[in-house]
Amino acid sequence: MFVEERHQIILEILEQDGKVLVNALSEKFEVTPDLIRKDLAVLEREGLLKRVYGGAIPLKGKSRQLNSISRKGKPTAVKIRIAEKAESLIGNGEMIFLDISSINLELANLLVRKNRNVTVVTNMIEIMKVLSIDSRVKLIFIGGKLNREKSGFTGAVTIEWLSKYQFDQAFIGAVGIDLMRESVTTYEIDDALTKTSAIKVSRKSYLVAESAKFSQQGNCRSAALSDFQGIITDSSIQAESIEKLKSLGLEVFTV
């Protein structure tokens, strides 16, 4: 695992649990506690957390912002590989939906670099900026209520506009994946309902998420796992998780 990937997962656990513990992270990543302490020191210098005895906590007032802060950084190797696989599933001439997701942001970059003949509908501001440059990619931006933390639009107006479309494919991100409850979660209800709406009007929907998401949870249910036709994740996913996903009818792509 690359250092950047480990840092991303640490931030995601911190966002979810409100703290991280050195010993727990050492066991999770199978590295020494000293290496984890160095990781936390780096993230503290970057202003993303505060170290305390035995671990770290969010900076005051930063808890809900960690996800959006980390999303704006350099994409990890895992996110890039997931985005590359997603891009390979998109056919020429298709209309796709990209929701608010750091992986989808990298997917948008790929579509521009490859000058794909596709139409992208999105509610994420950063994706809109990427796709606004001159290329064959056609852009449709969906407005609504601005969610500054997520750098995108969600809620009733967004959902109303989404209901007018019929997408060939939708690529949906997640805060957490709960195999016990067979559900996908996020943090905010407007974001959850917007994702649900996009899935309903898509011929195929793919969940794009790192395997770390299987150990994290949001507090709003955005979809049942069975609502998706497939999931694109990394090869660190456990074999038992793959079998569970397949039993729910999902095609599992690992990168």
Structure commentary:
This protein is of the alpha/beta class. The protein folds into two domains: 3-71, Winged helix-like DNA-binding domain superfamily/Winged helix DNA-binding domain (Arc Repressor Mutant, subunit A); 77-254, Rossmann fold, CATH 3.40.50. It is 40% helix and 23% strand. The strands form four sheets. It has a seven-stranded parallel sheet with strand order 6-5-4-9-12-14-15, with helices on both faces. It is globular, with a radius of gyration of 18 Å. The two termini are 13 Å apart. The model is unreliable at 61-65 (pLDDT under 50).
Summarize the structure.
Helices cover 40% and strands 23% of the residues. With 255 residues, the chain is of the alpha/beta class.
Observed structural traits:
255 residues; alpha/beta; Arc Repressor Mutant, subunit A; Rossmann fold; 2 domains; seven-stranded parallel sheet; three-stranded antiparallel sheet; 10 helices; 15 strands; 23% strand
Structural class: alpha/beta
- Provide the spatial order of strands within the biggest beta sheet: 6-5-4-9-12-14-15
Rg estimate, integer Å: 18 Å
Strand content: 15-25%
Runs with pLDDT <50, length 5+?
61-65
Quickly count the helices.
10
Under CATH at level 1, the class of the largest domain stands as: Alpha Beta
CATH architecture of the largest domain: 3-Layer(aba) Sandwich
**Secondary-structure element pattern, one letter each:** HEHHEEHHEHEHEEEHEEEHEEEHE
Could you state the CATH homologous superfamily of the largest domain? Translation initiation factor eif-2b, domain 2
The N- to C-terminal Cα distance equals 13 Å
**Averaged pLDDT:** 90
Main sheet characteristics:
7 strands, parallel
Per the CATH scheme, the topology name of the largest domain is Rossmann fold
Helix content: 25-40%
Instruction: Indicate the overall shape.
Output: globular
Secondary structure tally: strands: 15
Oligomer class: single chain
